[in-house]
TrEMBL record:
UniProt GO BP: DNA repair; protein secretion by the type II secretion system
Annotated ranges, domain Helix-hairpin-helix DNA-binding motif class: 174-193, 204-223
InterPro entries: Endo/Exo/Phosphatase_dom_1, Hlx-hairpin-Hlx_DNA-bd_motif, RuvA_2-like
Cellular component terms per the entry's GO annotation: type II protein secretion system complex
UniProt-recorded Gene Ontology molecular function terms: DNA binding
Protein name per Swiss-Prot or TrEMBL: Competence ComEA-like helix-hairpin-helix protein
PANTHER family hit by this protein: ENDONUCLEASE/EXONUCLEASE/PHOSPHATASE FAMILY DOMAIN-CONTAINING PROTEIN 1, ENDONUCLEASE_EXONUCLEASE_PHOSPHATASE FAMILY DOMAIN-CONTAINING PROTEIN 1
């Protein structure tokens, strides 16, 4: 019995150790049953919130990508013959490529195919592939139709002197049909347009008559002259107001505003041809517009 009791007799240090061990066990049990579940719940909530934050960030990135795409310049069908400096820049063309195109057009030549556009501008195949789907050529280029005009057989190739030429502003439709390339329909269109503008001032205005090709216009010049040109009051380009500029045919308020802006930046235009550098300027109408403008 005495030996048995000896197993339950502890020194002061042993009793302190046993008490500390029991305390650790109790703390461990409390941590396991009380604290640990709360920590796990917190981790789950944090994980759940992380998924929500990630989803939100992905949504923001998607909206940013859409906005960036929307801000990119939109390309609409256009005739490559009338690409300006500004439009060429927005299309991704280099200055050299734009200059080649503008120099080609200054020679009064026209681009009538995708291949010819690349030959003139020397743009890369990748840029051509990007732009060519938006090229829009006139119907008479893309869908040429057989000529149905009946031309007068009395046409003469003999050059006429100025005195022999009739006044285009008084010529009848019958007289116009004596020119090679002009039938009854074209003759009627010329007379109708002449009446609309109160007489021609320059042969360049014949470009506004639908269907007339440069060759036919040259034939008209060979047989007619403008002996009684329409009077035009020219507007001083370097001092004109916006209200004055919009009175010129083919110049609207937006183009007039751009002209005045460019004029201010350039400290005045040195040549009427500099208008081709103005944003959104109708380059193909330049020669007609020049009839109503003059440098101060």
């Amino acid at each position: 019995m005495k030996n048995f009791k000896s197993h339950f007799t502890f020194s002061k240090q042993q009793r302190s150790g046993i008490f500390l061990l029991l305390l650790i066990i109790l703390l461990a049990q409390g941590f396991y049953h009380l604290v640990l579940p709360k920590l796990m719940q917190t981790n789950q909530n944090f994980s759940s919130n992380s998924h929500e934050v990630s989803a939100f960030i992905n949504q923001i990135d998607s909206l940013k990508a859409i906005e960036i795409e929307n801000r990119k310049p939109k390309i609409y069908p256009f005739n490559p013959n009338f690409i300006t400096d500004y439009k060429g820049y927005t299309l991704g063309m280099s200055n050299e490529e734009i200059d080649r195109l503008l120099n080609f057009r200054k020679q009064d030549q026209w681009i009538n195919s995708v291949n010819q556009f690349q030959q003139v501008t020397k743009v890369s195949d990748s840029l051509l592939a990007k732009l060519s789907p938006y090229f829009k050529f006139p119907d008479w280029v893309t869908n040429p139709k057989p000529k149905q005009q009946i031309f007068n057989k009395s046409f003469s190739n003999t050059p006429k002197t100025e005195a022999q030429k009739l006044d285009l502003n008084s010529a009848t439709a019958t007289q116009l049909q004596k020119v090679y390339g002009i039938g009854p329909t074209y003759a009627e269109r010329i007379v109708k347009y002449r009446h609309k503008i109160n007489g021609f001032h320059s042969f360049i205005e014949l470009q506004e008559v639908y269907g007339l090709t440069p060759e036919v216009i040259q034939n008209i010049k060979d047989n007619f002259s403008i002996k009684t040109p329409r009077s035009i009051t020219k507007i001083p380009l370097n001092s004109a107001t916006k209200e004055q500029l919009v009175t010129v045919k083919f110049i609207d308020y937006e183009v007039a505003h751009n002209i005045i802006e460019a004029r201010t930046l350039r400290d005045g235009f040195k040549s009427l041809d500099e208008l081709t550098k103005v944003k959104d300027f109708p380059v193909k109408k330049l020669e007609i517009i020049k009839l109503s403008l003059q440098l101060d």
